Amino acid sequence: MRSKIVAGNWKMNLSQTEAKALCKEVNKLNIGSEIEVYIFPPMLYASDCKAISTRVKVGAQNAHPKDQGAFTGEVSMWQLKEAGMDAVLIGHSERREYFQEDNALLKQKLDSALAHGIRPFFCCGEPLGIRQDNSFLSYVKNQLEESVFHLSAAEFEKVVLAYEPIWAIGTGQTASTEQAEEMHAAIRSWVGEKYGKETAEKTSILYGGSCNPSNAQALFACENVDGGLIGGASLKAADFSVLVAEGTWTILN
Ligand code: 13P
Question: What is the distance in A from the centroid of ligand 1 to the CA of 208?
């Protein structure tokens, strides 16, 4: 049985006081053993959040693939591990777009995260133009082939995949259940071709992109959607609690 996961990517939002308060609220949620909840706060607050979180796992939104060195402004996977971080986001479209992170760099990040025992959440997804010209399946497959599919099966089984169509992120234009399920099923079939059916069935594939309390139930009910990577709706405890509850409800029904 694969993990069902609801994760909040707080991006570059919240003051320290707000972040700690939200973290306390999230930690109070009724989280059943059937579901894993992660938060990805701004790095500066990650240790505060880790100290507060008993039931919720805490990750970083980014890290550098090298362990140490002259990389001003960066934080390494090795440092994340010592700080007690559970996970790291790799390949978020905002990192790809605004920081020119390419598939080759993301491959290095993935290797470094796994080497240090940090669970990678690898994000993939196509821009609007690629969706419109109908080449979105091959586009996402290429992202996985160039950054992820060099891993051994044992390494790959530690990775969480997140499909986040760029045109749906922060736009309110959520992918339809058909669009999400088509991509998630395709991703699972490529994982199956590469690592075998058993590994494919164990892989958690999250959906991200304008996922909110009003659409989460339908998205999470899709056969190949194993939860969500949530941006805006993870910044309000009330909204996030609905998403966690929807995740749990969907699993139990
Ligand atoms: P929104 O939920 O705000 O669209 O953001 C999704 C996302 O980028 C999560 O990583």
Answer: 6
